[in-house]
Design a protein that fits this description.
Elements (H helix, E strand, L loop, with lengths): L12 H57 L1 E3 L2 E3 L1 H5 L8 E7 L4 E7 L8 H14 L3 E6 L5 E10 L6 E8 L2 H75 L6 H29 L8 E4 H12 L5 E6 L3 E4 L1 H18 L8 E7 L2 E6 L26 H12 L3 E6 L5 E6 L14
Parallel strand pairs: 9-11
Antiparallel strand pairs: 1-2, 3-4, 3-7, 5-6, 6-7, 8-10, 11-12, 12-14, 13-14
Amino acid sequence: MADRRRRPIPLQTAARLAALRVWLTVLLLVLNVAGLAGMGAVALVIDGQQRAQVEAAELQRTASTAVALLSYDSAALHLDNLFTDPAAQGSTGVFVYEGMRTDVTLVFAHPAGLPVIAPAALLAPARQVWKTGADLSLQVSDVDHDRVRLLAVPFRNAVTQNVAGTVVVAGDPRPGQRAHHELALGLLIGGAVFMAVAGVGGHLLARRGTRPAADALTQQERFLADAAHELRTPLTVIRALAEGALSDPDLARRPQTLKQVLGSAERLSDSVDALLVRARLVAGLRELQRQPFRLDQLAEEVVAEIVTEPHVAVVDTAPAVVNGDPTLIRMALQNLVTNAIRHGRIGAAPCELIVTVRPGEVRIEDRGPGLPDWSLDASRPRFRTGAADGVGLGLNIAAWVAAEHGGSLRLGTAAGGGAAAVLTLPELSDRHRGNRPA
C-alpha cells in the first residue's frame, strides 16, 4: 500500500460548521433568555398583585374586627376588647381615632412592631374618613422610606349612627417584601442554572444535529481534494514522459515511453470513471442497481482481468451470493486488486496475492511491505493518497462502495506480513432467495 505523504489540505467545512454550531447555541441562549425574562417578569408582577390582594384582605379583616370590638356606654367609648382580642393585637398595626368637636384624637395605638410611621401620615386619613364617612386605602412612607399600606374605616355611635371616629390599620410590608425578593432571587438563580444547562444542552444538540452533515461534507471535501491529487499525479507523469520523449534523440526508447504514458492514461481513465460513477450516485442521477449475483464468480473475473504475468494470484472461493450493484462492487474489487499489485510487492519482485471469498466477504492479501501503522486505525472512515492518515483513492472508493451496500472495508496485516484488505458485504436476504443465481 502507498506510504507517500504530503502536507494535509486544510479543510473549511469543519470550521464553518463549528461557527454554525456556535451561532445556533447563541441563538438558543438568546431565545431562552428572552423567554425566561418575560416569564420571570410576569411571575413577579402576578406575585406582587397577589401579595397586594392578600395584604388588602388582611387589612380589611383586621379593620372590621377592630370596629366590631368598639362599643359605647353612656356616651363613652370602650376600648377594653381591643387589648385582649388577637386580631387587634396581631402583626397588623391598629390605631383608633375618636372624633371630637372639631378634629379627631388618637385614643388607641397598637404599632405591632412596625417601623415608625409619622403621626401626620396617620392623622390625615383618619381626619378625612371621619369627615366623609367613606373607607380610604392609601400608601405612605415610614421612617425607613418603605411603602406601608393603610386602610382607614369609620366607626359609628350605636345610638346616633353618626360617625364617631376612624380605625386606621397598617400592614407590615417586610414579610411580603422578603418573600418577593426571595422569589426574584430564586427566579434569577434558577434562570441562570437553566441557561447554563440549556447552553450546554443546546451546544450538544447542535453538535449532534450537524454531525451527519459535517461528516458528509468533510468526507466530500476531503474526497475532492484527494481526487484532485490523484488525477494530478498521472497527468504530471504523462506530461513529463511526453516532454522527455520529444526531447530524447534515441527513438528506440520511445516505445517504452509510450507504454508508460499508456499505463498512466489507463490509471487516469480508471480514476475518472470511478469518480464519475460516485458523483452520479451522490447527486442522485444514478441509483444502486441491486440484484442477486455470485460474489465468488465476480471476484474470479476481476482477478483474471487484472492479475497478469509476472504477478501471481491464488484464488480460494466458496459459493457466495450477495444482493447489490455488480458494477460498483466490481469497481471496488478492481481498486483493491490494483492497489495490492501496485503496492504489495517489494522492489521489482512480482506481486503474490491471495484472494479468499467467503459468504459476504472478500479478503485480499499480499506479500509486500505491509501497511504503515498510521493507516491501520479502524476508526478512520477514509483513506487518502499521500496524506498523513490515508492510503489511496482506490481504497476510498472501495470503502464508499461497501458503505453504500451496508458493509465495510477493513485494513490489516496479513499472516505473511503483508497487507490485508477485507471487503464485507451483506449476504442475500430471504426475500431475494427465490431469485438466487445458480
